[in-house]
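Model it.
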Amino acid sequence: MFNKKINIWYSSSILISLIVAVPILTVFLSFFENTSNYQEILKNTFLIEYIFNSGVLLIGVLFLTFIIGTGTAYIVSFYKFPGVNFFKWALILSFAVPPYIYAYSLVAFFENYGTAFTILKALFGEGNYNKSIPKFDGMFGAILSISFSLFGYVYILTRASFFYQSQNLIEIGRNLGFSKIKSLFSIILPSARPAIIAGLSLVAMETLSDFGAVSFFGINTLTTGIYDSWIAFDDLAFANQLSFYLLIFILALFILENYSRKKAKYHVPMKGGFKKKEKLNLKGINSFLAFIACFIVFFLSFIFPLSQMFYWTIIFPDNFYNLNIFELLFNTIYLVVISSLVLIIFSFISNYGNRISNSRFLNLLTTFSVSGYAIPGVILAVAFITFIAWFDNNVISYFDFNSIKKFFIGSILGLVIVYFIRFYSLACNGIKSGYEKINKSIDESAYLIGYSKMKTFLNIHVSYLRNSVLLVSILVSLEIIRELPITLILRPFNFETFATTAYIYASEDLLEAAAVPSLFLIIIASFFILLTSKYILRENNE
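Modeled.
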């Protein structure tokens, strides 16, 4: 009986990991399939452009997020000035604004006769202001939009690293005669290098997977090529081949990250060697400059897009009344609740299976399966459709059963499954971090008093992991609310969320109408971010 119970948990964990791994394997296997004539046309025209644009976009975003993320993290970590405690958490509100919504705001403000024109006209009267207003579109607009939306990854991780740096390091620099600038570049930044690289890696993966911003600006990248191959040209095989190229990009990033940290030996000193940083109290012009620097970033990353969406909602109230807010809210929350429950339940099962089996194979398979978060949503959506089509044509039809495509493609079930694959890493690792704090002696004690594996799981583990579950739920909810390509490709007919509605209006050049769903998306996402901030900005020693 004992072995039977272990096998159930073990088998369930393996099955969960295999489900997540299937789309990744599908992309690799589909690379060698025959495609339509569209492949030859694209190879001779746009393929190089797709790869080149993806590379330029990546380099531009990495450079800008590094400057903004490390710069703000350094200021709030090493200095005291008015508003510093506010900026510590306010800067992460940039996550509430997806790149595609930032893109809408950028164009809306600076376009001909846009918001900037209206402000100048109100202040100075009639005039030909359009000539003087800069235009942020194309590649530059996409880089700005993605950077101000994603720099938070670098900010959070770098700030955490700065927090645990010992004052001893800074004092060593002073003793060597280092200036503040030299200490920054010779001691502080090198010590935080692993965190900076980790943050930039997350930014890179999100940049390569971006669809909304680049499609809005009309930039041909690998992501837009994948979407067009499937939606516009109905060439699923070539969509998978483009996905393969994008996966090569992702793999190269992982290799570069590991190589860059290969010889790095950074660690947090033990208590005896650790000395809490002494923050420098800025005064006068320096205090003002620090405040202005943080405020500009906060304003540009959050207040600016929020204000633009709010402005249009106010001056075009018909767009608010014509939109079925309650239906969009219900659909968004419905997806969040269902997907979060599925992710948490299966993450529990997977982690508990690993815990009681101690299987190296299962641990390896789980590690592989959590890589789904690194795979762009558009790739996962196309890979899922590919697998379902193959399974339907080769397995279901062989047994002369009815087609199963309608149950998985263009359905809530299919949407939830791909959400599960995409965000399984967040949920699984979140639950795992909580499990690592539960000593296995607690399990053994429970068995001694007659608890079964199931009773131990329900009565002890679930209770212990309450905070981990809450954090995972918030993080997953935030990701689902912002997610665009998966929802666009796999949603049922006439099933819209705030994200898809905003994109549809924007793609039809109806930016004023896109303002209302965009505003609601920002507000809801901000709520979840504020709930999460106490976890991701936790400072036990402050």
